[in-house]
Every structure is written in structure tokens, then in C-alpha cells.
Amino acid sequence: MGSYNLNDMTSFASWTRRLKIRHLEIFSTLVATGSQSAAADTLNMTQPALSKWLRELEEDIGAPLFVRGKTLRLTALGAQFLGFCEHVLGEAENISDLMEATRQGRAGRLRIGVLHAVVSELLPTAILRFRADAPNVRIAVTEDTLVPLLDALQRRELDLVIGRVQGAVLEGIRTEELYAEQVVAVVRAAHPLRLSPRPSWVAAREFPWLVSPQGTPMRTRFEAEFVNAGVRFPEDLIESRSVVVNQALLRHSNMITLFSRNVAPYYTTSGVLTELALPMTGTLGPVGLYLAEEELTPTVASFAALVREIALGQVDQVRDHN
Fold first, then answer.
1. Model confidence, pTM
2. CATH, domain range 6-103
3. Residue limits of the HTH lysR-type domain (predicted)?
4. What single string gives the DSSP state of each residue in 110-150?
């Protein structure tokens, strides 16, 4: 008998297109039981129907898959076909499990956009808790300013964005507020104003300031605090968005800057930088979720619900702190 290879058969298009999952299960059962009668009993089929099916399959392929005898033994081609059956049946089971997991929000992908200025314990905590229940979800995080993040969300390159809620949003995007973001001043631990029990904006004006660019919510808050205190803006300003540069400038100078209360711990945990008790008269406004207006996938909906839950806990903590 000559050698055969499934990959070399020019007639594959006709017979393979008639194959169904059930046919692969029948073949695998024939191999497992070693006889047509036992396989027929296992599959709740009649033996003549099973024999007819196997004969027609071998005719379509153009070669025998079994060596007949007391027990069925696979030919070389039959062994190839068994490998194909096992692969497809395994993938079919995998996709079934994946579809069910995706339906329950435990699989799929999650593409998160986040504004650097609002990165806090909220997102890392949400990701870690989410992965504990849904380890098979592929997560990607993009950090940027709000406009490019919202553009990506509108193009459906992101699934959700966590950022400050401000003004009108793009068509096809909805927002929901999570919490109002409080502001704190941060300086190095050895800053002269740390010696004052009640530092004032008048005194703070005499020091250099590290500020966000014009038009940003943090810059607006910075200016509003000086206006509300009745103090002229400081003249010694450096504008910077760089996390590394900002941290270095604060550590090695008497500069003052403003952070959201949720972001400040990233800078002050080591003890080199610390909060300065300047009195604040307002907040940065709400932090919220940006979501597509259409129905969310179960994965995105589950993650958004978790973010809401964690944000509510942060609100309670801030209320207790105050």
C-alpha cells in the first residue's frame, strides 16, 4: 500500500467541508473502543449505520483509516486523522469554555485609557481585583492626556477611559462621575514652610512653583486658590508634565506643587516629599468613567462595575479623613 498524506490530497475541499464535530467524535470513539460494535453502543448508533459512515469516509479520503481485524488498528493515515480530530475537538471545547467565560465577563480583552493626573490606587486596585476573578482577560493600559484618549475611545481602540469629567464629550461617548478630586500641596520634607503650623498662600507665593500647563484643570485650580486667598500669582513658575523631572525638582529644591489627594501618596510614601497643609477652597472637579454609548461587553461592564465599587470606597475614606 502506498503512503498517503492528508495535506497532499487534492480532493480535500469536497469531503472535509462535509465533516462535522459529530463525525470527529465518532472517529475518536472508534479509536478508543477498538471495535465498531462497541463504538456503536457508546454512541447510541446502529452498527450498520456506523459501518456505512466509516466506509464512505474512507472512500472520500481515498485510503483506509483502519486495519480491520479482531480490533481496529489505525493506519498511518488514520493516525494523522486522529491527530486532526483531537485538535479540533480540543479547540471546540476551548472555544465553548471561552464563549461562556466571555459571556460572564471572565475572558476576552480589556483596553483601559487613563489620564496620568488621575492615576491613583483606583486603577491598580481595580486591575488586581479583576484579574483575581478573571485571569484570562487580556488587559492593556494606555496613559495619555484626555483628548487622545477620548479619540481612541470613539474609534473603539479603547474600551473605557478613567479621567476628569469636563465639558462636552465626543459623539458616541457617555460619562459618569465617580468622585470629586481634592487637591493638596506637596513639598520636600525639609521645606521651610514645613516649620509653620499654618502655612499661608502669602508665604507660599515667595517660593518657586511647579505647575501644569495653561488650560489644564490643575493649573486652573492653582490660579483659583491664589485668587481666593487674595494673593497675586507667584512669578517664579516652571511648567512641566514630566513625572520624573517633577519629582527630582521637588526633591532638590524648595519648589511647591499641587497634586490630587489620590496621586500625592505616590510621591510622598518614601518620606522625601510630603504634603504641605495649605488651605484649599475647591476641588479639581469630578473624576469619572468615559464609556461607549452602545451596550458594553460583559468584560467591560464587569470591570466598570468594579471601578464604581472601589471609587465609592475611596469617597468614604476621604469623608472619614475629613
1. 0.61
2. 1.10.10.10
3. 19-75
4. EEEEEEGGG-SSHHHHHHHHHHHH-TTSEEEEEEE-HHHHH
